[in-house]
Amino acid sequence: MESGRIALTVEDGVAHVELARPDKMNAMDGAMFGAIGEMFRTLGTDGKVRAILLSGQGKHFTAGIDLHYAASQFTPSEDHARAGEARLRHIRWLQDCFTALEEARAPVIAAIHGGCVGAGVDLATACDIRICSADAYFQVAEVDVAITADLGTLQRLIHLLPDGLVRELVFTGRRMDAEEAASTGLVNRIAADRDAAIAAGLEMARAIAAKSPVAVTGAKLSLNYSRGRTVAEGLGHVALWNASALAAPDLMAAVQARLAKQDAHFAPLED
Question: Which Pfam families would you find in this protein's record (predicted)?
Fold first, then answer.
């Protein structure tokens, strides 16, 4: 499946989404933002999809927002109130396109190679898991074009890296290479190159897809809910989930499979 900005393949419950604008280093214009949001909202409600891999075609994961597109969206206006209201709605739309990854029922794994710049960091931090190639680098580059990052980096990166390091990256716009990203916990592992990162991501996605989708989805919901809340609130949330989820046949299927030393098979979620 092609949208002109992203490509999709689905096999055995694993969806592979590719940023597909390699001639522009996968720079994100309005069409790409819209395609990302629509794709992940669709996959996120598809009960047959159990894990999602996100990667980029070409030399880089993404160069971030297309600067020509950005310039066309934020032109000066004499009517500051109406222009400001329009900018607010547009920024919220852009945010929602990336929040769709976080809200997808299936876990999202990013396989990152080359540059992951600006809005690319916003996109990567909305994923559940990140794998990168040895040549990958991350750059919160908005400060270099006089923008405050506003699509999720400031809100999500702070849960992945130490506060002081986040502030350094945001205020200076310096590059973080793959080794530093791995040592600080931004990425789970480093692969040799783009192909190896995608292969590692697919292997992980298949492992997730083999598990109970009820259990995996519940875990993602609980992890997302618990971020920024007290332990007691998180415990209450997961207790309510399991009060209904443990009635699913998945528990008995998993136990019987383990006792028989066989692989368990689980029905898809409902759309």
Answer: ECH_1
Q: Which amino acid is at 16?
A: H
- Backbone CA torsion sign across 220, 223, 229, 232: positive
Rounded CA separation 141/121 (Å): 9
d(C-alpha 76, C-alpha 81), whole Å: 12
Dist CA 100 CA 104 (whole Å): 6
Tokens of 154: 């400031």
CATH homologous superfamily for 213-259?
Lyase 2-enoyl-coa Hydratase, Chain  A, domain 2 (1.10.12.10)
| pLDDT (tens place) for every residue of the chain, 271 residues total | 556 899 999 999 999 999 999 999 999 999 999 999 999 999 999 999 999 999 999 999 999 999 889 888 777 778 889 888 998 999 999 999 999 999 999 999 999 999 999 999 999 999 999 999 999 999 999 999 999 999 999 999 999 999 999 999 999 999 999 999 999 999 999 999 999 999 999 999 999 999 999 999 999 999 999 999 999 999 999 999 999 898 889 999 999 999 999 999 999 999 8
For the chain, give every domain's residue range.
6-209, 213-259
- DSSP for 250-266? HHHHHHHHHHTT-----
